[in-house]
Design a protein that fits this description.
157 residues, 5 helices, Phopholipid_MeTrfase, transmembrane helix, Isoprenylcysteine carboxylmethyltransferase family protein
Length: 157
């Protein structure tokens, strides 16, 4: 893939990711389940936990942080902190946050947007990992012991 096509694909995935998060926020609520205090408590807790995970991971990346899955030229491979638990903890955090918004939203559109977000982030993580494997000699060993989005799940062997 040419660098221009890689960049276009990367930013397309970023745009889809943010569009799906926006859908989860703005779509009117539904009635798939009762939207009561417990629903808002569980959904709100998931939103907060997801946001905390994503922020901690973003801080952990430091100057290597970018919304694009294309690694920055000067970036070092980060394998410590939350990255010792999951290779893509920002994506994990966004999925937990999105799950909270889907719980609060209680509509088929919310569930569909969350599933689409999951698929998008899986595609984005695999796209990113191809570049990380090319760039960092240590990435293959790291990916063999650390799960993709959830600790222990999705290790590359």
């Amino acid at each position: 893939m040419t660098p221009a096509r890689r960049t276009a694909a990367a930013w397309t995935l970023v745009a889809i990711q943010f569009a799906l998060l926006l859908v989860l926020v703005v779509v009117p609520p539904g009635a798939l389940w009762v939207r009561d205090g417990v629903t808002f408590l569980v959904g709100g807790a998931l939103v907060v936990v997801g946001l905390v995970i994503a922020v901690i991971a973003g801080v952990g990346l430091g100057r290597a942080l970018t919304p694009s899955p294309v690694p920055l030229a000067e970036a070092e491979l980060v394998t410590t902190g939350v990255f010792a638990l999951a290779r893509h903890p920002i994506y994990s955090g966004l999925l937990v946050l999105g799950a909270g918004l889907a719980v609060i939203g209680a509509s088929p559109w919310h569930l569909g947007a969350w599933v689409a977000l999951l698929v998008t982030l899986m595609v984005k993580s695999r796209f990113e990992e191809r570049m990380l494997l090319e760039r960092y000699d240590a990435y293959a060993q790291y990916a063999a012991r650390v799960g993709r989005l959830v600790p222990g799940v999705g290790r590359i062997r």
